[in-house]
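dumping the sequnces here before i forget
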Amino acid sequence: MRILVAMSGGVDSSVVAALLKRQGHEVIGATLQLYDHSGPAKPGACCAGRDIMDARAVAERIGFPHYVIDAESRFRESVIESFADSYARGETPVPCVACNQGVKFTDLLNMARDLGCEAMATGHYVRRVEGADGVEMHRPVDRDRDQTWFLFATTREQLEFLRFPLGEMPDKAHVRALAEELGLDVATKRDSQDICFVTNGSYAGLVEAMRPEIEGPGDIVDAEGRVLGRHEGIARYTVGQSRRLGDIHTGTGERQVVTKIDVPSRRIIVGPRQQLSTDENRRVVMLRDMNWLIDAPAEGVTCGVQMRAREGLRQARVRPLENGRAEVLLDEPALAAPGQACVMYEGERVLGGGFILS
Amino acid sequence: MLHSPLSMGGTTPIYLDANATEPLRPAARDALLDGLSIEGNPSSVHAAGRKARSLLEQARRSLAGAFGREADCCVFTSGGTEADTLAVHAFGKHAGRRILIGATEHDAVRRVAPHAGVIPVNEQGVIDCSALEALLVEAQKAGETALVCVMAANNETGVYAPLEDIATLCRQYEAFLHIDAVQAAGRMPMPGQSCAEWDYFSKALEGGFLKEASLAVSAHKMGGPKGSGALLLPEDKPLMPLLPGGGQERGRRGGTPALAAHMGMVAALQESQKQDWVAIATLRDQLQDVLVAAGAELVGGKVARLPNTLNVILPGVASQMQLMMLDIAGFCVSAGSACSSGKVARSHVLEAMGLGERAGQALRVSLPWNVTKESVEAFGNAYIDMVKHFSERGLVKAPQVCAQREV
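..and the predicted 3d for all of it:
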């Protein structure tokens, strides 16, 4: 079949394209240009200018057409601007989710359909399983590279059209070996890790440059408003973090964590971790922009939820509400960071998820 | 299963992108190969050097002669971009002139003069001479002379500049005129040739009103090799070089000249002067009728254009989508100028013509010297299939809708 492969220029999507071509599919490669690459390319983050060259080299080597798609303005407004806006609201956004949801799985996917493709493949590590009631999203075989949390917002309609061949790969070494076998120069290229559009290593610096109104120091206070210390800027804090609090831990004699970021007063509010872990008020978390990968059960569903990129599951009951919202009732209290994703799992399967509300 | 409207074409794609580069003409290939067998460096004093020098000077005489110039007025360069850059630096920046460029100029000119005054074009892409006069008056009032840079024929639309009017204004206001003739050279009739429909370039060169202008030409746009071009000066005089080097080209362009490539350029130009451009224009017009009937809107079609160039908008469908679809089907066409990353940007030429967002929905078809009736017909059919497919997907906007939106 005719299949469009979203190619970042990295080893994963390159292997996907080469594999599909070897299976006899009519492969079309596409690389999104997400921002201006006139500056020096940053190794180790996806989407840099050299990655376009790498993707093109793979396409030439394997022998299929490859195109560079200009997604700069769309990426700026739907990912970078909303990333800054979110920080300016005191949240901690997940830009990769916004990018997958908009630029990749809406715009590029529509382009694939318009080109007469029957599917679009990516190098993500998730499994697409054809279940009795339609397609399902599952964790990949290689659990170390699980990207389901970042792809929870994929709709069932999008999932129907998508293919994730790497979901079945046992491990990354296997993928690199395949790249070697396929003769791809990118076989030894390092993995992307950071937020791709943060090119100088400081996302906070970028946010402050874009939203200067939130730049600058402020007070760190306790729940009663007593000043415990100073901070260098609210964009450097996330609800639940205990780093960057200086000597407050020793000063109060207890391990402190951020419980709230108050933008108007530019205050970071902290509380003792021990006490918070038993605060019954912190068992309920509200979610917005829910994406259900099952038929949303009116009575709710008991499942595991993951509230941060690298974190274990917490047991909870999730109940859908009006306007794309949901209520999560956690078995144990937890500090939920506004803007982060809360993704529901049942065994290997992703049931859906939403963004944590303030 | 989804309907795949255009399947992968055969192994050899049909090439209709001559304005990007013309296929190498056999005579140019022969001349190029002859040149490659020359051992000497034209600057050397020994016999082998003299042989190379003699061939280089022969090429210089032929090229300059074709444009009605003396041999010493020809400075060989690496191509059109270098020739344009050299002219803008020598006659603009170093001469202290105020630089004025056409709104639809190629990046070769635009990027070397980013702060230049811009001469607007009308909706057909033709330079607005009254606006040019106003700019010249402004420069005069400021006590400055001007360098006017315009292209003889536009690379995206093929539209000709009103060279005679521009040259007259330049003479009146004592401005220096540089013509980017990269697309026009070889495709517009040269002195001694005549062609009823588009003969003013030949008249311009022959009749003398361009005799005070410099001209940039490029070998590969005539069917010669890539990497060769020339700046034709109005008279033999020293020039501030971009590359001083060893003082080659009489101090006007350092570096050992690409003898073989320049010989190839001359051969290509001679062949292009023998080309039956009327036959190519006829094929272009036939294709134009087919595309317009399929729903395309013609760009710059109401004025004199290059015989091989056709620019059409498919309302609602991004140039990128059209290019990908046709490439997959085995046809090489283009949309404006692609940047080095391969990303397809909105055409600044069509934007300057006031086409707004439709500037990002155009396709340029430029027929090469060896185009066949069959390939043009095949392209017409592929275009019709493409329009059908995009219409089914709901992308194509009906022309009436566009007309209403403009109001």
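Confidence is low (pLDDT under 50) at residues 39-48 of chain A.
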